[in-house]
Design a protein that fits this description.
By secondary structure, the chain is mostly helical. It contains 31 helices and seven strands.
């Protein structure tokens, strides 16, 4: 019988009939010894313990640091209660007033009733504050303060501000954890936290008093780039952004490959809860999450995120927003948000367009463009239908502002110009980049951004070609353990989903920050995370060393740890003396004119009196005196914007009869005029409040300069100037009852 056997003389292993080779001739990978496994496990536990402790320490130290700055800046523990309340400027004072109102209510039930049927925030109107404003945090804190046995040990105002500063610890810890997850080492988390702190405040001080009227004659000049919590404590973003950072950390963990089912479910729960709390605390939540959704969509369309996980994230955004809508008594502004329309359009388009990610490069590119067009049309259609059904006009001022800011024609709309003329809504100033460069943050960020964008473009191109022919290298600590098979000698880039999301996040929010300075607080903290995680990434350094033909594992490890440690040393040496000097700088609150005004109102006007004036000042009037207002700074309501424009005619060129009629139509008893507005010099011509009113009324602006040809000279002088001359037409309708160097209060005549 013929058989086949091994050739003689060839040193091969004889194969048995069942195909199994003899054990002694097979070279197997050596199994790690039990001692080695134990030592590595102990090292991981030690590293995790040290890293976790450092995360908690950096968060707590940041919280204490910011609280100390607040105390040193205002001498908050020593000033009177009315001065503490005045220090909560503009809308901050309005939000804090509801916390105070809940504490002063006879019972919680009575406090909730007063919030749901409020007739003091807007005169002659009863509004549901829980529906209109994002004040659940004030309600929750007031309930907590009344329930906990801390009244004897902690004043209500300290319970409030310490909660906010405590949230900063959560914020920094979340940034730390995100950077740690992206890089695989807690050293990057420490570097991210250091960058956050050193970019939070750059001081140019001159000793003197602190003022709250915006003037800077003797005040602290503090340009913040990562947070402004120490001087705008109750601002909605200071409540919301810590939970936004927690959401990003949870998303980063959720996008890691090969998660266990339980870990994945817990990550989804963390994402939902953080998204819900973030949305509940800030009225601009829908716009921030829309930007986030656009970044997710770009990654999803380029196949850089798992489709199922992207669907989960879209769904969570919509679910969280709808739950907030229910808690806010079905706030129409939420239902009519672009975010809900966009996310629903994405999910619907996926069902309509099958096999979207198949075909050759041109075929797939054409499908992608068609997909974009379908989603755009569907989003606009759904949003238009919802807004028409709800008769929604609450957010029209935002779109007017965006239209004017984008250069689609000049506008005389008062509300849009009110935003356009504020520095916070202008372009990001160039000196911001100089300050970021001082801490080496900008240099590190651009370096990591360049490498990561290059890798992302290569991955996107490969995914569109669907041929896996691009020769690049892995650039992520969360890459798949087994990359797809490639041609011999090829080394493909595998940009992990978490790293891709971090890149998309920093790009879309960077674009938002460049266009609107106020939004830099959503971008710069993530810049710290992104730059730190990149500097500590073995993949970034490995790729660069391979490109320069200097690669070996030991050199990569040295670069991964040496560069961040040198950067930390630089930050400590350069900024530690400044931080110590800053903490030693002692100032105090000083605004006697506003204090005098609040005392006079409390002592000389009835509790039911209605006051008119600037939005910023009236928020303080409500907080300090409890009087009824005609208007306030929470601007997300069309009828309130109309009220504000009517009240602001006191700074326009209008006859006294018209101004009196407008104010009395709102039930006004007293009007407060401010010299700082009437004779404003802070803004250039064309952006002063009186100029905005003149243009909206069709009048020529004051002072030398050009005017639109259709503007006409006003028939009457400026009201705020002329009323001080005590002429009969004015004294017949307005009686001066209080004045000091800053404010003039007039009582309106009734029945005229």
């Amino acid at each position: 019988m013929m058989s086949i056997r091994q050739r003689k003389g060839v040193g091969t292993t004889e194969v048995s009939e069942d195909g199994a080779a003899p054990q002694e001739n097979v070279t197997l990978e050596k199994k790690p010894s039990s001692e080695g496994c134990t030592s590595r496990r102990l090292w991981k536990i030690l590293s995790f313990t040290v890293g976790g402790a450092m995360a908690l320490c950096t968060g707590l130290l940041t919280s204490v640091y910011l609280a100390t700055l607040h105390e040193n800046d205002l001498w908050f523990s020593n000033i009177k209660e009315v001065e503490r309340e005045i220090s909560f400027r503009t809308e901050c004072g309005l939000y804090y007033s509801y916390y105070k109102q809940m504490l002063q209510a006879p019972s919680l039930v009575h406090g909730f009733h007063d919030l749901m049927y409020d007739n003091k925030t807007e005169s002659m109107r009863t509004i549901n504050l829980l529906q209109r404003m994002n004040i659940y945090q004030e309600v929750f804190l007031s309930v907590l303060y009344r329930v906990l046995p801390i009244q004897k040990y902690l004043e209500p105002v300290y319970f409030y501000i310490y909660t906010l500063f405590g949230l900063q610890a959560v914020y920094v810890t979340a940034l730390y954890v995100t950077s740690w997850l992206l890089s695989g080492t807690w050293l990057s988390g420490l570097l991210a936290a250091f960058w956050y702190i050193t970019n939070s405040c750059h001081l140019r001080t001159s000793r003197g008093s602190h003022r709250t009227d915006g003037s800077c004659g003797h005040c602290l000049l503090c340009r913040t780039d990562t947070t402004r919590v120490e001087f705008t404590i109750p601002l909605r973003e200071n409540w919301a952004l810590p939970f936004f950072a927690v959401q990003i950390a949870a998303i980063t963990y959720f996008l890691r490959p090969n998660l266990r089912p339980l870990s994945e479910r817990l990550a989804l729960l963390a994402i939902f809860l953080s998204t819900f709390v973030f949305s509940l605390m800030w009225q601009f939540n829908q716009f921030m999450m829309l930007v986030q959704a656009l970044g997710l969509f770009a990654l999803d369309a380029l196949d850089m995120l798992p489709a199922l996980k992207a669907t989960w994230l879209y769904t969570i955004q919509v679910a969280a927003l709808l739950l907030v809508c229910a808690l806010q008594f079905f706030n129409s502004m939420i239902l009519g948000s672009l975010l809900i329309s966009f996310n629903l359009s994405v999910l619907i388009a996926r069902k309509l367009q099958k096999n979207l990610k198949t075909g050759n490069f041109l075929n797939r590119l054409g499908k992608l463009l068609l997909h974009l067009f379908v989603i755009l049309c569907l989003t606009l259609f759904l949003n238009n239908i919802i807004k028409k059904a709800l008769s929604l006009k609450s957010d029209e001022h935002i779109f007017k502002f965006l239209k004017a800011k984008s250069g689609f024609g000049a506008t005389r709309d008062f509300d849009a110009n009110l935003y356009l003329c504020e520095e916070a809504f202008g372009l990001l100033p160039w000196d911001t980049f100089g300050r970021l460069s001082d801490t080496l943050l900008l240099h590190a960020y651009l370096f990591v951004l360049l490498v990561t964008v290059t890798a992302a473009l290569a991955v996107a191109l490969r995914n569109l070609r669907s041929g896996f022919n691009v020769s690049v290298c892995c650039l992520s600590s969360d890459c798949p353990a087994q990359p797809p098979l490639e041609q011999p000698g090829k080394c493909p880039v595998h940009l992990g989903a978490a790293t891709a999301y971090s890149l998309a996040h920093t790009v879309v929010f960077g674009a938002l920050a460049l266009s609107t300075m106020r939004m830099k607080y959503l971008w710069t903290p993530h810049v710290c995370v992104f730059a730190a995680s990149g500097l500590c990434s073995p993949e970034v350094w490995g790729l660069l060393l391979k490109v320069t033909r200097l690669y070996n594992p030991a050199r990569t490890c040295v670069m991964r740890y040496a560069v961040p440690m040198l950067t930390l040393s630089y930050l400590c040496c350069k900024f530690w003396p400044g931080v110590m000097e800053e903490l030693a700088e002692l100032r105090e609150f000083y605004d006697p004119d506003t204090v005098e005004l609040m005392h006079w109102i409390s002592a000389n006007t009835p509790g039911t009196a209605v006051f008119a004036g600037s939005m910023q000042l009236l928020a303080g009037v409500k907080l300090c005196t409890g009087r009824t207002l005609t208007n306030h700074p929470h601007y997300e309501d069309s009828s309130l914007r109309a009220r504000t424009k009517s009240v602001y005619q006191i700074y326009a060129k209008r006859p006294p009869e018209d101004v009196h009629a407008l104010l009395r139509a709102l039930g006004t008893d007293y009007v407060i005029l401010e010299d700082s507005i009437c004779y404003e010099r802070r803004h250039p011509r064309g952006c002063r409040l009186r100029d905005l009113l003149d243009m909206a009324n069709g009048h020529v602006m004051d002072g030398p300069g050009e005017n639109d040809p259709d503007l006409k000279l006003a028939d009457h002088p400026r009201f705020c100037e002329e009323i001080k001359r005590d002429l009969p037409p004015y004294t017949a309708l307005f009686t001066r009852v209080f004045q000091n160097k800053t404010f003039h209060v007039y009582r309106l005549a009734r029945g005229k």
